[in-house]
Amino acid sequence: MSTAEATLETNIKQSRATLDAWVGEVVQWHFNPETGCTFWLDYAQTISFDPRETIQTYDDLSKLGPFQDEWLRGGPVRRWVPKGYAGRPVYTFETGGSTGVPKSRINIEDFRLDYEAFSATLPDEYFPKGADWLSLGPTGPRRLRLAVEHLTQYRGGICFMVDLDPRWVIKLLKMGQPKMAEQYKQHVIEQGLTLLRAHDNIRCLFTTPKLLEALCEKVSLKKLGITGVFCGGTEMTPQFHRFAVEELLDGAYFAATYGNTLMGLAVHKPRIPEDNYAIIYYPPLPRAMIEVVDPDNPDRVVNYGETGRVRLTTLTKEFFMPRFLERDAAEREPPCELYPWDGVRNVRPFAGLQG
User: Fold this and answer.
1) pLDDT tens, residue by residue, 22-51
2) What is the DSSP letter of 228?
3) Which helix (H) or strand (E) element contains residue 290?
4) Looking at residue 275, what DSSP letter applies?
5) Which bin fits 144, alpha (ψ -120 to 50), beta or left (φ > 0)?
6) Whole-structure pTM value
7) Cβ(134)–Cβ(160) under 8 Å?
Protein backbone atom coordinates (compact mmCIF):
# COMPACT_ATOMS: atom_id res chain seq x y z
CA MET A 1 0.00 0.00 0.00
CA SER A 2 1.39 3.38 -1.02
CA THR A 3 1.65 6.33 1.34
CA ALA A 4 -1.25 8.05 -0.48
CA GLU A 5 -3.41 4.93 -0.18
CA ALA A 6 -2.58 4.57 3.50
CA THR A 7 -3.42 8.22 4.12
CA LEU A 8 -6.75 7.85 2.30
CA GLU A 9 -7.57 4.72 4.31
CA THR A 10 -6.86 6.59 7.54
CA ASN A 11 -9.00 9.54 6.44
CA ILE A 12 -11.86 7.21 5.49
CA LYS A 13 -11.84 5.70 8.98
CA GLN A 14 -11.69 9.15 10.59
CA SER A 15 -14.61 10.45 8.53
CA ARG A 16 -16.66 7.39 9.47
CA ALA A 17 -15.88 7.92 13.14
CA THR A 18 -16.95 11.56 12.79
CA LEU A 19 -20.19 10.45 11.11
CA ASP A 20 -20.95 7.87 13.81
CA ALA A 21 -20.36 10.40 16.59
CA TRP A 22 -22.57 12.99 14.87
CA VAL A 23 -25.37 10.44 14.37
CA GLY A 24 -25.36 9.77 18.10
CA GLU A 25 -25.55 13.49 18.87
CA VAL A 26 -28.36 14.13 16.37
CA VAL A 27 -30.41 11.16 17.62
CA GLN A 28 -29.99 12.32 21.22
CA TRP A 29 -31.29 15.76 20.20
CA HIS A 30 -34.31 14.69 18.14
CA PHE A 31 -35.53 12.03 20.59
CA ASN A 32 -35.03 14.11 23.73
CA PRO A 33 -38.42 15.35 25.05
CA GLU A 34 -36.86 18.75 25.79
CA THR A 35 -35.25 19.36 22.38
CA GLY A 36 -36.88 17.02 19.85
CA CYS A 37 -39.72 17.69 17.44
CA THR A 38 -43.25 16.36 17.85
CA PHE A 39 -42.93 13.98 14.90
CA TRP A 40 -39.94 12.04 16.22
CA LEU A 41 -41.13 12.11 19.82
CA ASP A 42 -44.45 10.61 18.70
CA TYR A 43 -42.62 8.12 16.48
CA ALA A 44 -40.58 6.95 19.47
CA GLN A 45 -43.83 5.85 21.14
CA THR A 46 -44.53 3.43 18.25
CA ILE A 47 -41.27 1.45 18.46
CA SER A 48 -40.05 -1.04 21.05
CA PHE A 49 -36.71 0.60 21.88
CA ASP A 50 -35.30 3.94 22.96
CA PRO A 51 -33.33 5.36 20.00
CA ARG A 52 -31.14 7.37 22.39
CA GLU A 53 -29.83 4.11 23.87
CA THR A 54 -29.89 1.90 20.79
CA ILE A 55 -28.62 4.11 17.97
CA GLN A 56 -24.94 4.85 18.43
CA THR A 57 -23.60 4.64 14.84
CA TYR A 58 -24.68 5.42 11.30
CA ASP A 59 -25.42 1.75 10.59
CA ASP A 60 -27.74 1.66 13.60
CA LEU A 61 -30.13 3.99 11.76
CA SER A 62 -31.43 0.92 9.91
CA LYS A 63 -33.32 0.06 13.11
CA LEU A 64 -35.61 3.03 12.51
CA GLY A 65 -36.65 1.79 9.08
CA PRO A 66 -36.88 3.92 5.93
CA PHE A 67 -38.14 7.49 6.00
CA GLN A 68 -41.46 7.70 4.13
CA ASP A 69 -42.15 10.22 1.38
CA GLU A 70 -45.69 10.96 2.55
CA TRP A 71 -44.51 12.07 6.00
CA LEU A 72 -43.46 15.41 4.51
CA ARG A 73 -46.63 16.01 2.50
CA GLY A 74 -49.22 18.18 4.22
CA GLY A 75 -49.35 19.44 7.77
CA PRO A 76 -49.03 20.32 10.44
CA VAL A 77 -45.55 21.45 9.44
CA ARG A 78 -44.88 22.60 13.02
CA ARG A 79 -44.52 18.96 14.07
CA TRP A 80 -41.06 19.10 12.48
CA VAL A 81 -39.82 22.10 14.50
CA PRO A 82 -37.52 20.91 17.31
CA LYS A 83 -38.43 22.17 20.78
CA GLY A 84 -34.81 23.18 21.15
CA TYR A 85 -35.45 25.90 18.56
CA ALA A 86 -38.66 27.24 20.12
CA GLY A 87 -39.09 30.94 19.47
CA ARG A 88 -36.72 31.02 16.50
CA PRO A 89 -38.02 32.25 13.10
CA VAL A 90 -38.83 29.25 10.92
CA TYR A 91 -38.81 28.98 7.13
CA THR A 92 -40.55 26.29 5.15
CA PHE A 93 -39.25 25.19 1.77
CA GLU A 94 -40.95 22.89 -0.72
CA THR A 95 -39.81 20.27 -3.17
CA GLY A 96 -41.88 18.71 -5.92
CA GLY A 97 -45.46 19.89 -6.16
CA SER A 98 -45.91 19.64 -9.93
CA THR A 99 -48.63 17.13 -9.06
CA GLY A 100 -50.30 16.73 -5.69
CA VAL A 101 -49.18 18.12 -2.36
CA PRO A 102 -45.48 19.13 -2.29
CA LYS A 103 -43.09 17.90 0.37
CA SER A 104 -42.22 20.59 2.93
CA ARG A 105 -39.09 20.92 5.03
CA ILE A 106 -38.56 23.44 7.83
CA ASN A 107 -35.35 25.49 7.95
CA ILE A 108 -33.90 27.82 10.54
CA GLU A 109 -30.16 28.10 9.88
CA ASP A 110 -29.37 25.02 7.78
CA PHE A 111 -29.54 26.73 4.41
CA ARG A 112 -27.06 29.33 5.61
CA LEU A 113 -24.66 26.77 7.06
CA ASP A 114 -24.84 24.59 3.95
CA TYR A 115 -24.10 27.43 1.56
CA GLU A 116 -21.35 28.90 3.73
CA ALA A 117 -19.62 25.52 3.57
CA PHE A 118 -20.19 25.44 -0.20
CA SER A 119 -18.69 28.90 -0.49
CA ALA A 120 -15.35 27.51 0.70
CA THR A 121 -15.22 25.28 -2.41
CA LEU A 122 -15.58 28.19 -4.86
CA PRO A 123 -12.29 29.59 -6.20
CA ASP A 124 -12.05 33.33 -5.52
CA GLU A 125 -10.30 33.81 -8.86
CA TYR A 126 -13.56 32.99 -10.66
CA PHE A 127 -16.10 33.86 -7.96
CA PRO A 128 -14.56 37.12 -6.67
CA LYS A 129 -15.39 38.28 -3.15
CA GLY A 130 -17.52 41.42 -3.41
CA ALA A 131 -18.84 40.57 -6.87
CA ASP A 132 -22.58 40.62 -7.51
CA TRP A 133 -24.53 37.57 -8.66
CA LEU A 134 -27.48 36.84 -10.91
CA SER A 135 -29.76 33.97 -9.89
CA LEU A 136 -31.63 32.79 -12.98
CA GLY A 137 -33.91 29.92 -12.03
CA PRO A 138 -36.44 28.59 -9.51
CA THR A 139 -37.19 30.69 -6.41
CA GLY A 140 -40.72 30.85 -4.95
CA PRO A 141 -41.22 28.16 -2.29
CA ARG A 142 -37.81 26.60 -2.90
CA ARG A 143 -34.76 26.77 -0.72
CA LEU A 144 -32.82 28.35 -3.58
CA ARG A 145 -34.71 31.60 -3.13
CA LEU A 146 -32.81 32.36 0.07
CA ALA A 147 -29.79 30.09 -0.27
CA VAL A 148 -28.24 31.67 -3.36
CA GLU A 149 -28.92 35.13 -2.02
CA HIS A 150 -27.24 34.23 1.28
CA LEU A 151 -24.28 32.76 -0.61
CA THR A 152 -23.91 36.04 -2.48
CA GLN A 153 -24.16 38.13 0.67
CA TYR A 154 -21.77 35.84 2.54
CA ARG A 155 -19.22 36.49 -0.20
CA GLY A 156 -19.81 40.25 -0.01
CA GLY A 157 -22.06 40.70 -3.04
CA ILE A 158 -25.63 41.63 -3.95
CA CYS A 159 -27.90 39.08 -5.65
CA PHE A 160 -30.21 39.95 -8.53
CA MET A 161 -32.98 37.44 -9.19
CA VAL A 162 -35.13 36.27 -12.08
CA ASP A 163 -37.70 33.63 -11.18
CA LEU A 164 -38.65 30.56 -13.19
CA ASP A 165 -41.62 28.46 -12.07
CA PRO A 166 -40.83 24.83 -13.03
CA ARG A 167 -44.33 23.70 -12.06
CA TRP A 168 -45.75 25.95 -14.78
CA VAL A 169 -43.27 24.61 -17.33
CA ILE A 170 -44.22 21.03 -16.48
CA LYS A 171 -47.92 21.90 -16.71
CA LEU A 172 -47.48 23.53 -20.11
CA LEU A 173 -45.67 20.49 -21.47
CA LYS A 174 -48.33 18.13 -20.09
CA MET A 175 -50.98 20.27 -21.80
CA GLY A 176 -49.17 19.85 -25.11
CA GLN A 177 -48.00 23.47 -25.22
CA PRO A 178 -44.25 23.25 -25.99
CA LYS A 179 -44.29 26.56 -27.88
CA MET A 180 -45.73 28.36 -24.87
CA ALA A 181 -43.14 26.71 -22.63
CA GLU A 182 -40.42 27.95 -24.97
CA GLN A 183 -41.91 31.45 -24.91
CA TYR A 184 -41.88 31.38 -21.12
CA LYS A 185 -38.23 30.30 -21.12
CA GLN A 186 -37.34 33.15 -23.46
CA HIS A 187 -39.24 35.55 -21.18
CA VAL A 188 -36.98 34.46 -18.32
CA ILE A 189 -33.83 34.74 -20.46
CA GLU A 190 -34.75 38.25 -21.61
CA GLN A 191 -35.09 39.41 -18.00
CA GLY A 192 -31.70 37.93 -17.18
CA LEU A 193 -30.06 39.64 -20.14
CA THR A 194 -31.54 42.97 -19.13
CA LEU A 195 -29.98 42.68 -15.67
CA LEU A 196 -26.61 41.47 -16.97
CA ARG A 197 -26.38 44.41 -19.36
CA ALA A 198 -27.47 46.96 -16.77
CA HIS A 199 -25.22 45.93 -13.85
CA ASP A 200 -21.50 45.84 -14.53
CA ASN A 201 -20.56 44.26 -11.21
CA ILE A 202 -22.39 40.96 -11.87
CA ARG A 203 -19.57 38.43 -12.22
CA CYS A 204 -21.21 35.24 -11.00
CA LEU A 205 -24.25 33.33 -12.20
CA PHE A 206 -26.49 30.66 -10.74
CA THR A 207 -28.74 28.89 -13.22
CA THR A 208 -29.92 25.51 -14.55
CA PRO A 209 -28.39 23.66 -17.53
CA LYS A 210 -31.28 24.44 -19.89
CA LEU A 211 -31.35 28.12 -18.98
CA LEU A 212 -27.56 28.35 -19.25
CA GLU A 213 -27.64 26.95 -22.77
CA ALA A 214 -30.49 29.27 -23.77
CA LEU A 215 -28.66 32.27 -22.31
CA CYS A 216 -25.44 31.42 -24.15
CA GLU A 217 -27.35 31.20 -27.44
CA LYS A 218 -28.08 34.90 -27.03
CA VAL A 219 -24.82 36.32 -25.72
CA SER A 220 -21.22 35.59 -24.76
CA LEU A 221 -21.00 35.36 -20.98
CA LYS A 222 -17.34 36.29 -21.20
CA LYS A 223 -18.18 39.56 -22.93
CA LEU A 224 -20.67 40.32 -20.18
CA GLY A 225 -18.00 39.75 -17.55
CA ILE A 226 -19.23 36.44 -16.09
CA THR A 227 -16.29 34.51 -14.64
CA GLY A 228 -18.03 31.85 -12.53
CA VAL A 229 -21.17 29.75 -13.07
CA PHE A 230 -22.83 27.71 -10.31
CA CYS A 231 -25.17 25.27 -12.03
CA GLY A 232 -27.55 22.63 -10.75
CA GLY A 233 -30.55 20.70 -11.93
CA THR A 234 -31.73 17.31 -13.08
CA GLU A 235 -30.62 18.00 -16.66
CA MET A 236 -26.94 17.80 -15.66
CA THR A 237 -25.17 15.08 -17.68
CA PRO A 238 -21.55 14.34 -18.65
CA GLN A 239 -22.43 15.51 -22.16
CA PHE A 240 -23.71 18.85 -20.91
CA HIS A 241 -20.74 19.18 -18.55
CA ARG A 242 -18.34 18.83 -21.49
CA PHE A 243 -20.47 21.14 -23.65
CA ALA A 244 -20.56 23.82 -20.96
CA VAL A 245 -16.83 23.75 -20.26
CA GLU A 246 -15.60 23.41 -23.83
CA GLU A 247 -18.13 25.53 -25.72
CA LEU A 248 -20.50 27.63 -23.63
CA LEU A 249 -18.47 29.34 -20.94
CA ASP A 250 -15.46 30.88 -22.69
CA GLY A 251 -13.16 30.07 -19.78
CA ALA A 252 -15.57 30.80 -16.93
CA TYR A 253 -15.43 28.35 -14.02
CA PHE A 254 -18.21 25.73 -13.99
CA ALA A 255 -19.32 24.60 -10.51
CA ALA A 256 -21.85 21.78 -10.83
CA THR A 257 -23.90 20.77 -7.79
CA TYR A 258 -26.45 18.14 -6.81
CA GLY A 259 -28.80 19.48 -4.22
CA ASN A 260 -32.35 19.59 -3.03
CA THR A 261 -34.53 20.98 -0.30
CA LEU A 262 -34.22 17.85 1.83
CA MET A 263 -30.44 17.51 1.85
CA GLY A 264 -28.81 20.79 1.04
CA LEU A 265 -26.20 20.40 -1.66
CA ALA A 266 -23.43 18.02 -2.62
CA VAL A 267 -20.33 19.46 -4.22
CA HIS A 268 -18.73 18.33 -7.44
CA LYS A 269 -15.35 16.64 -7.33
CA PRO A 270 -12.73 18.88 -8.99
CA ARG A 271 -12.54 18.02 -12.66
CA ILE A 272 -9.65 15.81 -13.82
CA PRO A 273 -9.14 14.33 -17.32
CA GLU A 274 -9.47 10.74 -16.05
CA ASP A 275 -13.09 11.35 -15.05
CA ASN A 276 -14.03 12.21 -18.65
CA TYR A 277 -16.52 14.89 -17.55
CA ALA A 278 -18.49 12.49 -15.35
CA ILE A 279 -20.64 14.31 -12.82
CA ILE A 280 -19.26 13.15 -9.45
CA TYR A 281 -20.78 14.50 -6.25
CA TYR A 282 -19.89 14.10 -2.59
CA PRO A 283 -22.36 14.90 0.23
CA PRO A 284 -21.59 17.36 3.05
CA LEU A 285 -20.61 14.76 5.64
CA PRO A 286 -21.53 14.51 8.49
CA ARG A 287 -24.59 16.71 7.88
CA ALA A 288 -25.82 14.44 5.10
CA MET A 289 -24.93 11.05 3.67
CA ILE A 290 -25.67 9.67 0.21
CA GLU A 291 -25.61 5.96 -0.57
CA VAL A 292 -26.44 3.94 -3.68
CA VAL A 293 -28.59 0.90 -2.89
CA ASP A 294 -30.12 -2.05 -4.68
CA PRO A 295 -33.62 -0.93 -5.84
CA ASP A 296 -35.00 -4.40 -5.10
CA ASN A 297 -33.28 -4.65 -1.72
CA PRO A 298 -32.73 -1.13 -0.34
CA ASP A 299 -30.90 -2.49 2.70
CA ARG A 300 -28.00 -3.52 0.44
CA VAL A 301 -25.49 -0.89 -0.66
CA VAL A 302 -24.22 -1.73 -4.16
CA ASN A 303 -20.53 -2.18 -4.97
CA TYR A 304 -18.40 0.70 -6.22
CA GLY A 305 -19.13 1.42 -9.87
CA GLU A 306 -22.50 -0.33 -9.78
CA THR A 307 -25.81 1.39 -10.50
CA GLY A 308 -28.58 1.70 -7.96
CA ARG A 309 -31.09 4.02 -6.37
CA VAL A 310 -29.94 7.01 -4.33
CA ARG A 311 -30.65 6.82 -0.61
CA LEU A 312 -30.33 10.04 1.35
CA THR A 313 -29.89 10.64 5.06
CA THR A 314 -30.03 14.19 6.44
CA LEU A 315 -28.50 14.71 9.87
CA THR A 316 -28.86 18.18 11.35
CA LYS A 317 -30.27 19.54 14.59
CA GLU A 318 -33.08 21.13 12.54
CA PHE A 319 -34.01 18.15 10.40
CA PHE A 320 -33.51 14.41 10.80
CA MET A 321 -34.36 12.23 7.78
CA PRO A 322 -32.84 8.74 7.90
CA ARG A 323 -32.60 6.44 4.85
CA PHE A 324 -34.92 8.22 2.43
CA LEU A 325 -35.12 6.69 -1.06
CA GLU A 326 -34.73 9.49 -3.59
CA ARG A 327 -36.25 9.58 -7.07
CA ASP A 328 -32.75 9.34 -8.53
CA ALA A 329 -30.39 6.68 -9.82
CA ALA A 330 -26.58 6.86 -9.85
CA GLU A 331 -23.37 4.86 -9.71
CA ARG A 332 -21.60 4.44 -6.37
CA GLU A 333 -18.34 6.40 -6.33
CA PRO A 334 -15.42 5.53 -4.02
CA PRO A 335 -13.92 8.02 -1.57
CA CYS A 336 -11.26 10.41 -2.83
CA GLU A 337 -8.48 12.47 -1.25
CA LEU A 338 -10.59 15.60 -0.87
CA TYR A 339 -13.76 13.76 0.21
CA PRO A 340 -12.87 10.51 2.02
CA TRP A 341 -16.38 9.05 1.96
CA ASP A 342 -18.81 7.65 -0.60
CA GLY A 343 -20.00 9.76 -3.51
CA VAL A 344 -22.32 9.34 -6.48
CA ARG A 345 -21.66 9.50 -10.22
CA ASN A 346 -23.98 10.71 -12.97
CA VAL A 347 -27.20 11.23 -10.99
CA ARG A 348 -30.33 10.93 -13.13
CA PRO A 349 -34.04 10.15 -12.69
CA PHE A 350 -34.70 6.64 -11.39
CA ALA A 351 -36.28 4.67 -14.23
CA GLY A 352 -38.42 2.66 -11.83
CA LEU A 353 -40.45 5.81 -11.06
CA GLN A 354 -40.87 7.06 -14.61
CA GLY A 355 -44.01 6.70 -16.62
Assistant:
1) 999 999 999 999 999 999 999 999 999 999
2) E
3) strand 288-294
4) G
5) alpha
6) 0.91
7) yes
